[in-house]
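Follow-up to my post from last week.
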Amino acid sequence: MSRTPPVDDVIVNVDHNRGSRRQSRAWLGGLFRAVALAAVAVVLLVVLLTVTGQRTGEALIALVTGAAGTWYAITSATLVRAIPLALAGLAVSLAFRAGILNIGAEGQLLAGAAAATFATLAAPQLGVATIPLLLAAGCVAGAAWAGIAAFLRQKLGVLEVISTIMLNYVALHTVGYLVRGPLQESTHVFPQSFNIDRIAQLPIIIPRTRLHLGFVFAVVIGVALWWWLKDRAGGFRLRAVGANAHAAESAGRINVARTTTIAFLASGAIAGLAGATQLSGVTYSLYETISPGYGYTAIAVALLARLNPLGVLVAAVLFGALEAGANAMQRDAGVPEVLVSVVEALLILLVLAADRWRTRQVRMTEASI
Amino acid sequence: MVDGAKATNAALALIGITRRFGSVVALDNATMHVQPGTVHALLGENGAGKTTLMRVAFGLAQADAGSMELSGRAVRFSSPAAALAAGLGMVHQHFTLVPAMTVAENVALGGRGRFSIKEWAARVKEIGERTGLVLDPFARVSDLSVGAQQRCEIVKALARDVRVLILDEPTAVLAPGEALELLQWVKNFANAGHAVVLITHKLRDALAIASNVTVLRRGQSVLNASVSDTTESQLAAAMLGSSSDGSSQVSEPESAKTAAVSDVLVETRISEPASQMAITAHDFDMESRNSNSTSNASASSPINETHSPQIDATFDSLAGREVRSAGGEKRDFTRVVLRLSDVTSRDKRDVVRVNRVSLVVHAGEIVGVAAVEGAGQRELLRLLSGRIAQSEGDVQLPAHIGFVPEDRHQDALMLDRSLVENVALRDAGSREGRMPWNALQQATRTIINELQVVAGGAEVEARTLSGGNQQKLIVGRELADRPEALVVENPTRGLDFRSASAVHDALRSARAYGTAIVVYSSDLDEVLALSDRVVVMHAGQLLAVDADRDAIGRAMLGA
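User reply:
Got it. Predicted complex:
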């Protein structure tokens, strides 16, 4: 959904095969954007490292090596971290596209992880059906957690920005209770759940790495969402409601309440899937810090991608790389990991400011006519 | 017409004002002199620069060139506060009141230093006694009628002791009676020695009270004259320029004077079916893309012969009238398309907005709804277009109903989306499967061509279009699949002559192929110009009225 400058439209208007041409331009634009953002991230990091008096060269080498230096780093550090960011990012972008400010991907993710943990209890009986069941449980729990906010919004007009943030804390502390109570490991020493059964663990898709099947989920859902939003009537309805709910209702005769509710629930389901996937593919047990804020970073990922599902996949890999690199930087060069969080935040601010600026240019042109 | 002596006497003089926005020249050497003790009308089409010129005067925009004098003293205002301090006030077309605050608080806004609500309330009272603009200082603005809000806006300016008052389209939102009252007040205010600039596109308002007039066209002051030295036809010619063709037409001047304008403007009246039909036939036919030219003649000529559209036309005389449309399908013009039987509608707070209304609209007729603000017409139109459900009674509607709501930015468009996506919005609620983007792109181009929408292509954002072109796109969209019925609400509000005329033409040609049309406009003359018959809505009820304009006006006010 990138903006095309008017001059492009004039050019493509005379082109009969314009659909594909426009897409290839959008592709190139998106690729350029991703590369530019990565470059900006590195520049920002260098500045920050220099200002804080770190050994810049050493830190950068550790960062790059940790994120992309080896095959193992790419697959097992960067991409594995990108999976929950991508899934939660898709959840956020779907909701935002419908005009729903779902800030609750974090809580929905935790709900999904907790429900999936419960589902693994049935592993001995279910065997190979355990994984589908736990994934489904994660989706349902995520949707239900979002459903609370959706219900409050629909029936009582409670702002979802507020309710979803609050529900994040409820989810976090519920998990805290579960891992000290009903789901605690058998020694009752650590605040975490039992290890899930081997049959409940997601298969590794590339041997001798940690890259699990969740990667495929993220890619498939990303591509499917992109196609659905672009090409299907239901996707258009969702986007129309997000663009202008009044017009969608009046001119499009779209059932806005139904559309937003479904989008909200679907968003929660995808976030819940992110939680279930993280449990079943990475941590193999439930604990409070199973998500180091993936649900919040996901908002950044979605915004960075301008809510485009394909862009979310790319942005998730970028953030996955940054976080993997930050980890290595702290470990190998002794540079605090939070420095990278600062870079992430600055990136988002930059992107938002740039978008605002572009919108203003358009509006100023319009106002002057 | 401009001389030095005038400039020094003027309460407000704007000399050679030029203002550019990027590459667009909004004001090009515009000059006007407002004499004390007079009302000075500032006329021009939409986008001619009237409001921009006054924003420059009021310090909301800065001139790129030119100078300004207030009572002979050269001034330049960097902000509205500076203008107010110097005795120049402006009342904007769109109110700038804080609805949650009281009248006195709104009037006090922008003041400095110690704030005493008592003093401001006393000031509001005092101004009311002195000028007749009576308001309860402690009433909440959100509880006030539109007319009272207008008074509050003026009192806000008067509380700063302004000597020059700019009024931007002050009658646009008022009922006829309120408008008359306001204009009378403006006249008196000027007679007391103040100067008033009246921005308007209503010739009749301007000529009723103004002593002098300035006409802007494309940012240039093309005419500065005293009203006694000029005729309506001169003014209209100045506003439209020589490039205007015979097809553009005004909807508002209904007075006898307007006859003089008809060399420039083709006037359409209910009593003149011939000219009405001439416009219907002369261009734009939505059918033309899927049929040959015979559709035009076959669709419109039978009406031309048999249809004598009186306001109170009884449909007995139209019995048997039918035409064959382009597709060869029979269009029965006596067929009832929309029917409300004893329908009541309540809003969320359970207040009755539409009270036991019955109405029948036939294929191929335009029914005009006349009403003052808030008489229930908003709900009536939404009932007729199927956008809300009735609380009681029986509603019969066809499957395809086009709807053109008055607030196009809120209810009709996705401003940040392409024209294609905006066209796709029609029927989006019931569409299944894939979006037929290629067909929708084609449909958008057809609308752009047929309604001559000025746009940089089908993929530009709706935001980049001017208001008139946005409206043409909406009308084209709602008429694109030849709906059985069309409901339109203030279809030309804020539009210039040419766009308004294009919208009117589109409505008439839709009538020609048998669409049942309901039109509401807050401009009574527009209702009269478009409609085959008129119903008046007052306090939620529909009234039958005589054809007479004054009778309709009285019925609207419930007199």
